[in-house]
What does this fold into?
Amino acid sequence: MPERTVVIIGGGLAGLAAAVRLIRLGIRPVVLEKRPFLGGRAYSFTDSETGIEIDNGQHVFVGACEQFQEFIAEIGASDRVRMEDRLNIAVLRHGRLSRLRARRLPGILANLSALLGYQHVGIAGKCRILWGLLSIRLTRLKPNSLHDQVTFEDWLRDHWQNDETIRNFWDLIILPSLNDSISVVSAHTGILLFKIALLGSSSNPAIGVPLVGLSALWGDNARKYIELHGGEIRTETDIQSLETDGGRVTGVRGVDGGVISGEAVISAIPAAAMSSLLPGGSNGPDDFFTPAESLQSAPIVAIHIWYDRPVLFEDYIAVLDSPLQWVFNDTALKSRDADGGQHVVISLSGAWDRKDRSKQQLRDIFAAEMEREFPEARQATITRFTIVKMLEATFRVIPGSQRSRLPQRTPLPGFYLAGDWTDTGWPSTMESAVRSGNMAAECVAEDIDSAHANTASARGYLR
Ligand SMILES: Cc1cc2nc3c(=O)[nH]c(=O)nc-3n(C[C@H](O)[C@H](O)[C@H](O)COP(=O)(O)OP(=O)(O)OC[C@H]3O[C@@H](n4cnc5c(N)ncnc54)[C@H](O)[C@@H]3O)c2cc1C
It folds into this structure.
């Protein structure tokens, strides 16, 4: 068992990924999570009425999420997710179904070919989109550039896009990916997203979905992996401050007063929670931590409807010009025996206008909307209805937000940052969380190794 121990605060994906990477680097992680379960903002729980495990929100990834997929493979859970081999999205608009489906062509042509058969944009619109994509391809993004000062919608309109292309193509991808409207997200993040997703390889935009509940998927498997490799996980351990010695972070103190020490500490918790742990608040060395305080968050509302018969014949579908946004067939995705019925999940991103609505109000709106868009729902009976509101689901990537994303190495010796909100280059996603954990673990290992080498050399061992 490795003798060096590093403390990780937070058992979300970032903390778990950091732990797995530390183990690979020969360092023993101790993960401290305040809640009784792992997974952070990506977890599942048992629905009291149906007794089935439901997710706190539909989680989807794409082929470009390479480090997330490596993490899933490392913890032995690859068979619990399913990937398409290329872009293939069913899109419904005013009762008409069309697909953004890539053909089997070489390189980038595969992704661009998805536009050919897509009927919700006319020929002129497709030319506009190609021009927009070319402009994105030619744009060089730099840190703190003008692209982080304007919205993606303004940028698109400056690049020959109109209402039709913005509504039926660009925002179809932006809203679920960035959890905010195209009219508020920064051009920087929008451009980056399309560079990665559509202007990369044909597997980049292919959608992947979990086939089991999220807590079983990474909570259970990551715990097994970490404990099997000598690491430790302590749940219901709420950390309230950092312990320091001579300016160096040497451990953490829990709300119960207990101290847990390590050679370094990785914070893998949201920005605001991290700030509250700092000695003297966020006005630490050189105001390094202060920008993180301006990060804002955006809500996601998931609406779960159980019907007595199938109403949806796709695994998932996007619905344009409708409050439905995206609808997932949970019964099919999780291969559940629903006794002839079907469980669908309506995932509402950027759900500002829904977050304060009551369960009954949401039921009235969304049951009617399902009937309007899916004829089978008109004959079906709803056997159960529930909602999950996540008010701080993701951080917002509005103009100016880039500077709030801090790097993994901090000026406080022994203290490192992870979490989807840190500077990973990715928006608020599972990929960003895993990348941040990997990067923090690499920094820790590098610094511990060089500190040990310096000590050894000071003692004259290395000559
Ligand atoms: C409804 C919903 C849908 C989403 N859909 C998608 C999607 O489709 N695709 C995608 O890629 N991403 C999606 N996301 C975003 C994704 O879930 C997050 O980006 C990711 O889970 C963030 O992981 P994290 O580890 O950085 O942070 P968190 O998940 O927030 O983990 C932080 C952990 O730290 C713990 N903690 C906090 N303070 C303390 C403390 N003082 N002491 C100890 N522990 C503490 C918390 O309890 C938590 O477990 C979605 C999020 C939500 C909410």
